[in-house]
Amino acid sequence: MATTKKPTGKTGKMEDSEFHEFFVDELKDIYWAEKHLAKALPKMKKASTSPDLAAAFEKHTAETEQHISTLEQVFELLGEKATAKKCDAMAGLLEEANGIIEDTDSGTMIRDAGLILAAQKVEHYEIATYGTLRVFAENMGHTDVVDLLSQTLENEKATDVALTTIAEGFVNEQAAAE
User: HEC states along the chain?
Assistant: First the structure.
């Protein structure tokens, strides 16, 4: 039996639409992801050998806390409660990061190379998610949400570039020599 939905336009908020519900559900997913990443980054910092990598993880911890606050603003703008729904993708990525820490020797650049790999997998997941959510918000006419998600997206891209710079600057070369 088909259900009749009222038509919604690009300028409407579409709160009653299935697409809006899907959007909110995916916001809950990335909210969980950011909250768990904020807990994992200090462990990754502690496991780092390079002071540059440790500093990058410390900086990204603060940025991740800001991403959590930004998502809370997004929920508020949408008239939704900020709730988290387990993100299986982030759970797996963080489990992989823990495995790298367990499987590499402390104080080595091999561990740092592995941590950068794990962190960049996380960044690429976040870039894909925020990029898509931004486009969803755009299509529903949530311009205020688009602006917030765009800021977070740009920050995630900058973190990815910073990690690449550290890897290519010295970590990968030193790891290969170990």
Answer: CCCCCCCCCCCCCCCCCHHHHHHHHHHHHHHHHHHHHHHHHHHHHHHCCCHHHHHHHHHHHHHHHHHHHHHHHHHHHCCCCCCCCCCHHHHHHHHHHHHHHHHCCCCCHHHHHHHHHHHHHHHHHHHHHHHHHHHHHHHCCCHHHHHHHHHHHHHHHHHHHHHHHHHHHHHHHHHHHC
Q: What is the pLDDT of residues 116-128, one digit of tens each?
A: 999 999 999 999 9
| Cβ neighbours around 62 below 10 Å, total | 11
Contact 48, 61 (CB under 8 A): no
Q: Count CB atoms within 10 A of the CB of residue 49.
A: 21
Joined together, the tokens standing for residue 65 give 């806390």
